[in-house]
Write a structure and sequence with these properties.
The structure holds two protein chains of two kinds. Chain A is mostly helical. Chain A is 77% helix and 0% strand. Chain B contains 17 helices and 25 strands. Classes of the chains: A mainly alpha, B alpha+beta. At the A-B interface, α2, α3, α5, α6 and α7 of A face α1, α2, α5, β10 and α7 of B.
Amino acid sequence: MHAVNARFVGWRLLQLVPTTASILLVAFLLIHLAPGDAVLAVAGEHGDAAYYDFMRHRFGLDQSLPRQLVTYVSQVAQGNLGYSYVYGRSTFGVIVERVPATLLLTGTAFLISLLVALPLGAVAATRPHGIRDVGVSALSLALYSTPAFWVGQLAILALSLRLGLFPVQGMTSAGSSATGWSHAWDVARHLALPAIVLAAQEIAVLARVTRSALLDELPRDHIRTALAKGLSARRALVRHAFPRALLPIVSIAGARVGHLIAGAAIVEILFGWPGMGRLLLASLQSRDTPILLGLFLVVSLTVVLANLLSDLLHAALDPRIRLR
Amino acid sequence: MGRPGRRGWKRGPSGALLLLWAVGAGGCARDPSRGARAGRDSTTLVAAIASDPGQLNPAITTNGSVHTAAELLYDGLVALDDSLRPTPALAVRWEVERDGARYRMHLRRGVRWHDGRPFTAGDVTFTFQQLLLRFHARTRASMAPALTTVEAPDDSTVVFTFRRPYAPFLQQLDVSEAPILPRHIYAGSDPLRNPANVAPVGTGPYRFASYTPQSEIRYTANRDYFRGPPALATVVLRIIPDADTQVAALEAGETDWLYSVPGPARQRLSADPRIRLVRSAVSPGGSNCITTLGFNLDRAWARDLRVRRAIAHAVNRPQFVERVLFGEGRAADAPISSGIAFAHASGLPIPAFDTAAAARLLDDAGWRRRGGEVRVARGVAGVADGTAFTIGFKGMPGQMTYGDLLRAQLRVVGIDLRLEPLEPTVFATSVFTARDFDAAIGAYCNGTDPEIGVRRMYASSSIAPVAFSNMAGYRNPAMDALFDQAGSAIDREERRRLYREIQELAVRDQPYVWLVETTGTRAYTTRCRGFATVSHFAATAVCTR
């Protein structure tokens, strides 16, 4: 890697420390200042007051807020994210178990959205305001304005129940002990529907961005030159306009990673996909603070890193951009 | 879609995506025996549960999702039959001594834990002393203050001695209230963090096989179960958080059993020949529940009995059954659920639906209707004249459908209800700890004995920062005395008489309005039968291919 780039990456990575520290601090305070009591969710209802005091003491929730904060910070500094109240296990372990499922879901959805949105945007840009452009715009608008939980329900009813194309829920067949390729196939069948539903909104956004980026490119001199030299319209678009149009697409796609993770929470609940989004919601309801903070850490790191990656890609695609 | 850069954009959007939108009313036939069930045979049952229990130790929590997932693995000293009478389980017989202040339990011999170690009286004393009486919220709250000792005179006898006669004891020994755990696994450890909480060892009809977080828990039949081995070799509890997805999974054949069916889906399922529905008052979260409106008796307006009675008159209970519960449940006609047959009183003078009577009572109490829709105060003690009669109404989001209907019903008599939905943990702190509410709604599960789930609503000692305790803040020394008598009376007829008096007093004082008794609907595929409604639901089930 170029020397300047290495310094830039190092600097950006260094910025991660204060960013995540402040995210954690704000999250810690917000969770603790919000009403609600973890003990109730963990221990169940119908106890007496002495019982809940006893449980609070066991979890260290009877200590003052600053004291709890100091305990938490010193734990995190030692690389320990604490014990989950609900799971009674290390927070790190509980979260790490869910990472692969969410990565697989969001990664696939991201890939699908790129594979669908780029061609769609290109189709729309070739003849602005033509029938295809209008069609793509209408589709984008529809996809963007329908919430994922509704699209998901519809997809389950139509594609799973009526047509029987995909399983309704889960990541594998219930009770399955398949391994190797048959396991991979099983996961792929279960993955298809949630990934498509999660990709829907991203497709809408990216198709619009691709269209407008290409429309900016197409009237430029270098395209006209290419066409004058006898290149076909398709070749001019793919070879000459597309690479330059990628710049804004990469920026937007990087910035959408946060949205993708947020959307994954809804899709995971709807399809019973065993990922981090479901863990986040369940932990929020049970006020399982160590898990929540751990998840915030993972998600904020992911978003910051995704943005860094999109900056680096930017620089790689456009030699004029210097990262300092 | 495979090579988008070259071809895709010229051809237009590819089919897969448009399919998502195009398919809907299509006339494609359903094939019930399709792929989803592949690999499942007559020996496997898949049941859906809504939330990941996190851990599987039912002795340290009363959390419904933990109990749903863990009770297949364990047993209590007794089991309860359909009319909630104790029948032998880990204990084969028992003697009640000293007028009910001492219980001598004789344990079943030859029972083994899933790991092969013998079950003994030491497991029972350990479970009570170190787990249940410390960590199980209900058992600790109701039993610990009364119990003096738990002793094991020999390997197959356990003696429980109480300070005074303790009537509900046998009802509190089933696998929900008092599951027995192995001493050799838990002794000397922190029970909240013991690794066995996610790899449990019990005596129950099923053994633990595996637990994939957020995905599924697998169980295999306990071939040595003391009641005989279950017919099903494998049970899978599949975690499906969304209720509609659960229904879809049942229809697609991906699951065989649902613990509950949302109202709107019930009609669709009941028309499906492959699916059978059954009602039950028992649910994993509690049994014999009454959805109850509670008044905060610390509020000036609520202290007037006439106002409380007026609201009771303004409430149309059958409408709640019809519109909120979609016909599933019954209008409550007493403070104690009809599910506890011996204690439920019939023919009580509960205020009937009568808006004219409600209006008269409100007029008398000083809440006048002057042209406007909402009544205003005139000479109401503790309320400034001219104050509009607006009541804040707190409830959890799932119960706001009750709020909507109640708001409409109270509007008719000139009371304005302001709905304040709160998520569960916030609801509990706001209503029971801060007591910052006018009126609130709660599902009070009466359980198997009024001592477990009814006393806490009325005893003045239960006015505490504890969820689902005495929400109203109701105090009446006569009521306290009656509950003390009923709790220590051993004779059932005597208890029946005392609980009738309790209910008459409750209706007279009206600290609550008892709206509806709720029941749950289970749904299962017709390929399986023989389910029990309670904890060991799958122990007696049989499936065909």
